[in-house]
Design goal:
Layout (H helix, E strand, L loop, with lengths): L1 E3 L5 H11 L7 E7 L3 E8 L2 E8 L5 H24 L13 H8 L3 H8 L4 H14 L10 E7 L1 E2 L11 E2 L6 H13 L8 E8 L7 H11 L8 E7 L6 H9 L4 E4 L6 H6 L6 H13 L3 E8 L6 H14 L3 E6 L7 H5 L7 H15 L3 E7 L8 E6 L6 H8 L3 E5 L4 E6 L4 E6 L4 H6 L1 H11 L2
Parallel strand pairs: 1-2, 5-8, 5-15, 6-7, 8-9, 9-10, 10-11, 11-12
Antiparallel strand pairs: 2-3, 3-4, 12-14, 13-14, 16-17
Bound molecules: S-adenosylmethionine (SAM) and iron/sulfur cluster.
Length: 453
């Protein structure tokens, strides 16, 4: 695909190629050279040579690397966008956190997004809307902490999903995992100074049997104060029961997710969700009767879905009137069953779907409040969370803007210590594999104590 002298960001260049190619064999050669101020990128594509020169005074090595990568990606985007005759709404902007980038660029963010990355006015307005919603919530001075608890188990695996979670029936160490997780939680108090939210996610935490769920909630209980936002990703309606909802309520959980993904039964079958659209509505109404703040996740661009299918999903959500809903764009992720079946997603169609969701959400009193992007997303689009005023999930904002420190427990959990005054984040990633996590829990606790010293 790409032969480059910059192996350190080969993957980023491949991401740009993936935006455009339909899996055909594209051959590109790339050479990047700079003297720390003038950046030269030479590309050879279909026998033709393209040269780009940019100038930038950088202040340190970190910035140097950032601009080397940025200019190379921009050059490649220009060549391919011209060749394929396609311009994406996000232009050449990649990266998970477009709002974080806007905060960093300060007052110049609109100009930078438009002139440097060719981001459309529509998406710039989305960013402006989100920054506006975040204003009263954003942890500007980095004075809060959040707690994340990872449950990497699900009832069964959905075909689009590449999260590390595995089907409960296939894991031999669930009890040992719960014990190790509670042990880590018991040993994490000293890392938290000013907790504002707890998020138990994964995976599908509610798929655990009640005994394990109670054990974990008991380990979290000592962290909670009056008003702590406490979310559990209940997730799939096929595991939500009155008994589980009562347990969540008894232990102070105040926000849960009941995720339809789509309201088409045909699609639910294709993506292996093992529940029906009707059961989502039934479990949503049940959860509502317990007084939880409720979020619903959906995905735009699911296999074989038309605009009408997606419209029906959004219209149903609007009728149900949850406090929050999150519209994801389908990503063909490595490691998912779907990635082996589909090579590429249709261009253009999904954009119409996400535009519909955006407009209808706003017309019905929801504000977009957080955004993130993932690699290999249909139409190179984004994921946006919408909320009724004052119902925003602060955890989602803290995590996406990386303003608060995050103490993360369990397999695949990544802790972050934020130093706002130094504009620095230090990270520690727990092992992804469940058994490795169990075996190394003492080592993990020690390393995390050092991180949050
Ligand atoms: C961490 S998952 C957990 C959700 C929960 N287990 C469930 O399935 O209801 C959070 C959300 O990510 C989204 N998601 C997962 N894989 C995706 C993919 N390949 N493309 C787009 N969205 C995806 C889904 O909407 C999902 O609800
Ligand atoms: S989407 Fe949710 S339930 Fe499905 S496999 Fe992924 S984490 Fe598990």
């Amino acid at each position: 695909m790409i032969d480059t002298n910059r192996l350190d960001y080969k993957k980023d260049l491949e991401e740009v190629i993936f935006m455009f190619s339909s899996g055909e064999d594209i051959s590109i050669t790339h050479i990047e050279e700079n003297d720390g101020k003038v950046f030269n990128d030479k590309f050879v594509f279909l026998g033709k040579e393209y040269n780009f020169t940019n100038e930038k005074n950088v202040k340190d090595l970190l910035e140097l690397k950032r601009y080397e990568k940025r200019f190379s990606k921009l050059g490649l985007y220009k060549i391919l966008s011209n060749y394929y005759g396609v311009n994406y709404e996000w232009g050449a902007l990649t990266g998970i956190r477009p709002t974080k980038m806007a905060y960093m660029a300060g007052d110049d963010f609109e100009k930078e997004l438009k002139d440097v990355f060719y981001v459309s006015d529509k998406k710039i307005n989305v960013i402006k809307d989100i920054l506006n919603t975040q204003k009263p919530i954003l942890d500007k001075d980095g004075k809060y902490d959040d707690l994340f608890v990872s449950i990497p188990f699900c009832p069964t695996k959905c075909t689009y999903c590449s999260f590390i979670s595995e089907a409960l029936s296939k894991c031999k160490y669930v009890k040992e995992y719960v014990d190790a997780l509670c042990y880590e939680l018991d040993n994490s108090f000293s890392s938290i100074k000013n907790l504002r939210s707890v998020y138990v996610g994964g995976g599908t935490p509610v798929s655990l049997k009640s005994e394990y769920l109670i054990k974990i909630l008991n380990a979290i209980k000592p962290y909670l104060k009056e008003g702590t936002e406490f979310t559990v990703e209940a997730g799939r309606p096929d595991v939500i029961t009155e008994e589980k909802l009562q347990i969540l309520k008894d232990y102070g959980v105040n926000r849960i997710c009941v995720n339809p993904q789509t309201f088409s039964n045909k699609t639910l079958e294709i993506i292996g969700r093992k529940h029906t659209a009707e059961s989502v509505i039934e479990k949503y109404n049940l959860a509502k009767s317990y007084g939880f703040t409720i979020n619903m996740d959906v995905i735009a661009g699911l296999p074989e879905e038309t605009f009408e299918d997606f419209k029906n999903t959004i219209d149903t959500i609007i009728k149900l009137n949850p406090d929050n809903f999150t519209v994801h764009t389908l990503c063909l992720k490595k490691g998912s069953e779907l990635k082996n079946k589909i090579k590429r997603l249709a261009v253009g169609e999904v954009s119409k779907m996400t535009d519909y969701a955006y407009n209808i959400a706003k017309e019905n009193g929801y504000n977009p409040y957080y955004i993130y992007r993932q690699k290999y997303a249909a139409d190179n689009l984004e994921n946006i969370g919408y909320s009724k005023p004052n119902k925003e999930c602060v955890y989602n904002i803290d995590v996406m803007e990386e303003t608060s420190s995050n103490v993360a427990c369990g397999a695949n959990a990544v802790s972050k210590r934020v130093y706002p005054e130094k504009n620095l984040i230090e990270r520690y990633g727990n092992p992804k594999d469940v058994l490795t996590y169990i075996n190394k829990v003492n080592e993990i606790i020690k390393a995390k104590k050092e991180l949050f010293l």
